[in-house]
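ok so for the tutorial part 2 we go from a plain amino acid sequence to predicted structure tokens. step 1 is just haveing the sequence, like this:
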Amino acid sequence: MTTTTEIADKIAAAQSLTKAQAKAIVEAVFAEIAAAATSGAETSIPGFGKFKVKDTPAREGRNPSTGAAIKIAASKKLTFTPAKAIKDALNG
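step 2 — the prediction. this is what the tokens look like for a chain of 92 residues:
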């Protein structure tokens, strides 16, 4: 697993920044992606992928321990679709 601190450390070393500056940049990028998602906008990062909000409709589910039917409320989720370059890198 890679953490934001590890990402920031690598950016700091590669770009001659302090770790604090790099961490602020990484956190700002994630905050902007979250802000765009909150407003319903799609975030596209060329060569990396797209983040977009997907609506999940309400549905009926089952309580696994009792088998009773329950209602699952509609919700929104953030999805990520990798760019072709990332897919190719993962699959050789």
